[in-house]
Design brief:
By secondary structure, this protein is α+β, with helices and mostly antiparallel strands. It has 15 helices and 15 strands. It folds into four domains: about 80 residues, no CATH class; about 90 residues, von Willebrand factor, type A domain (Rossmann fold), CATH 3.40.50; about 120 residues, no CATH class; about 110 residues, no CATH class. Helices cover about 45% and strands about 20% of the residues. Helix 11 packs parallel to helix 14, helix 12 runs antiparallel to helix 14 and helix 13 crosses helix 14. The chain is elongated. The termini are far apart.
Length: about 425
């Protein structure tokens, strides 16, 4: 369906002069959508042309306007397609059961096929309470499914439904097409590194709330960081797969907090909104000729074996002294952060870190000599993982060894006045 604005030199009565139909078919008629007379003597009428003329450029003389039987000059202007939004409001009260409901659905579905595919449409049903069956969208199959799913029951809340439909159409198309969300203009980050460091959270619901508070600002055409937490929730509530791409072999998902903040935070947000974790993948385009994707669990296991628990990598960190010890502690933090947000760490990972980073005699000597603060941070983080249930079934001997190592490092630092 296309709309035109008719700028009339005078007023008041409109009539259309549709093209003559072929054969014996009756002529097709225009539908007057709206008439605006506030700028009299000019009158603006919004009309829709028949489906057979949709998409065609029609000159001004394709229309005729009569006032008292006298023809008046007209100017026709096509409205941009993105200015038209339609919200279908269907009565779903108990009085519509059976044939009336079926007829209403048939009419609504037929309407979808007469409207241009570029026109966004929403669906509202009203029985005892108005319900948004579908937000404003271009997805015709989704709209057809929403209409088909309407059921007749209860009383009639017509005026509430009309109010809801008006609210749905008020800027709904721009909200429905928001896809890029980030931090508030002038800030950076997702807030989760600070949250994990502060240990001020109870469950993934808290993590999701912080992710939303920090990242609930929309960017795009006409948007420069507009507060849009409701739109962000709507968008994330429909996410089925969360994908993170890595474009360099020089880093991985466990050597920066950005990975668990943004990818893990998205996973936590979707789970908090829907009650289920989305499918999670990590893509690698480091070698454009060998692009591949793995599940997040597969990638976490690969990175853990290839680097985190690799004796050669650990030895290289030892050679870097103080900084190397800090890198070991940071790696444990990132593993913990990804586990807190997306549940990627398995018990054997925590145990290997404990045994290789802290309980090994040579590593204990290295950390105590080069960077006891890093050793204490590793022990503290592993004990937190056990306390929070992320490390679900730690070996008691390992856990006891961690406590002893933590207390020993704490004592060493106190004696040194650090």
């Amino acid at each position: 369906m296309r709309r035109f604005v008719l700028l009339l030199a005078t007023a008041i009565v409109l009539a259309s002069s549709p093209p003559v139909a072929a054969g014996n078919q009756p002529p097709e008629e225009l539908q007057v959508i709206e008439v605006e007379t506030s700028a009299s003597p000019k009158v603006t009428a919004t009309v829709s042309v028949p489906p057979s003329l949709a998409g065609k450029d029609l000159p001004s003389d394709a229309f005729s306007v009569l006032e008292g039987g006298i023809s008046r000059p007209t100017t026709a202007t096509r409205l941009p397609g993105d200015e038209l939004e339609v919200v279908l409001v269907l009565d779903t009260s108990g009085s519509m059961r059976g044939a009336p409901m079926a007829a209403a659905k048939d009419s609504a579905t037929a309407f979808l096929n007469t409207v241009a595919s570029t026109t966004p449409i929403g669906v509202v049903g009203f029985g005892a309470q108005p319900v948004v069956a579908s937000p404003v969208t271009l997805d015709r199959p989704a709209l057809a499914a929403a209409i088909a799913g309407l059921e007749a029951r209860g009383e009639t809340a017509l005026y509430d439904a009309l109010a809801l439909a008006a609210e749905l159409g008020d800027g709904a198309w721009r909200r429905a097409t928001m896809r890029v969300f980030g931090s508030k203009p002038g800030t950076y980050g997702a807030g989760l590194a600070q949250l994990v460091d502060a240990r001020d959270w109870r469950d993934r619901g808290d993590i999701a709330a912080v992710y939303e508070a920090w990242g609930g600002y929309a960017y795009g055409r006409g948007l420069a960081g507009e507060a849009a937490r409701d739109a962000m929730r709507d968008c994330h509530g429909r996410i089925e797969a969360a994908v993170k791409n890595v474009d360099s072999a020089e880093h991985d998902i466990l050597d920066s907090d950005d990975y668990f903040q943004y990818h893990g935070g998205m996973i936590a947000a979707v789970q908090a909104l829907t009650g289920r974790a989305p499918a999670a993948y990590v893509g690698s385009s480091a070698d454009p000729s060998r692009v591949r994707a793995r599940t997040l669990d597969e990638e976490a296991r690969r990175v853990f074996r290839a680097r985190v628990s690799n004796p050669r990598w650990i030895a290289s960190m030892v050679r870097h002294g103080y900084k190397g010890a800090a890198e070991l502690a940071a790696t444990v933090d990132y593993l913990f952060g990804y586990d807190a947000t997306a549940g990627v760490a398995e018990d054997w990972m925590y145990e290997q870190v404990a045994r290789r980073y802290l309980l090994d005699a040579d590593m204990a000597e290295f950390l105590g000599r080069s960077n006891p603060w890093a050793g204490r941070a590793i022990a503290e983080r592993l004990l937190e993982a056990a306390q929070r249930g992320l490390w679900e079934s730690p070996d008691e001997e390992v856990l006891s060894g961690l406590r002893e190592r933590f207390l020993a490092l704490e004592g060493e630092l106190e004696e040194a006045g650090a």
